[in-house]
Design a protein that fits this description.
single chain, Rna Polymerase Sigma Factor, Chain: A, 2 domains, RNA_pol_sigma-70-like, DNA-binding, Arc Repressor Mutant, subunit A, WH-like_DNA-bd_sf, DNA binding
Length: 228
């Protein structure tokens, strides 16, 4: 079980932030590593919104560090999963996830609720992935993709991910996709986001996101014919 944020002793850095993930091993449980992100958040005070509009209710917790911890725990693993699949670099992933939440904290007063906090965070994370210049071949599929498929989806080759040989073939096929197609496929098939959400995250129109997904899926289907 993750220790509470208050128990961590951060290391100060020159710019006043805390390099809390620098020494975290790639084998460190993600929930524990993500918990340390709280120490990275600048101490800038924000005013608490008083509006009760629908948009304000959708906003991340402005100025509430405890509530922001919840945001980190809720969305951190998915951001970590996405960044790791896109970069294949554990050190880069730690930096990307940390920088995503630090940026979110700094920008939180400008969030207008036009998208969900999840979509907003993924958009920041996607930009950090591009900025890292470390988009490489895909890494082994995450545990979520190892879950046995539902019997109702047995005709779908992508549902048959409990088979080790299939996983290896899917992994190789994903690695060969262009980064944009891989990103769209991961956000749609793994994170179960809608095309409008994916478009917001990757600066695409919904139709553009749908097109990338179609091309990625067509390529994967061609590569995985034996499982159809």
């Amino acid at each position: 079980m993750s220790a509470p944020f208050s128990t961590f002793s951060p290391w100060s850095s020159a710019d006043g932030r805390t390099e809390c993930l620098t020494n975290v091993s790639p084998t460190t449980p993600r929930s524990w590593a993500l918990a340390r992100l709280c120490a990275c958040l600048p101490a800038t005070p924000w005013s608490t919104p008083t509006s009760t509009t629908a948009n304000s209710r959708r906003r991340p917790p402005t100025g509430d560090r405890a509530a922001f911890e919840t945001l980190i725990r809720r969305h951190g693993p998915a951001l970590h999963r996405y960044a790791r699949r896109m970069t294949r670099d554990d050190a880069a992933v730690q930096d990307i996830v940390q920088e995503t939440f630090v940026a979110a904290w700094r920008q939180i007063d400008r969030f207008r609720g036009e998208s969900s906090p999840r979509t907003w965070l993924f958009a920041i994370c996607a930009r950090k992935v591009v900025d890292s210049h470390r988009v490489k071949r895909a890494v082994p599929l995450d545990d979520r993709l190892l879950d046995p498929a539902d019997s109702s989806a047995s005709a779908d080759p992508f549902a048959n991910v409990s088979n080790t040989e299939f996983l290896e073939a899917l992994e190789e096929a994903l690695a060969e996709l262009p980064p944009r197609q891989r990103a769209v496929w991961l956000l749609r098939e793994v994170e179960e986001l809608t095309f409008p959400q994916i478009g917001t995250i990757l600066s695409l129109s919904p139709d553009g996101a749908r097109g990338h997904h179609h091309r990625a899926r067509t390529t994967l289907q061609q590569r995985l014919q034996r499982w159809r």
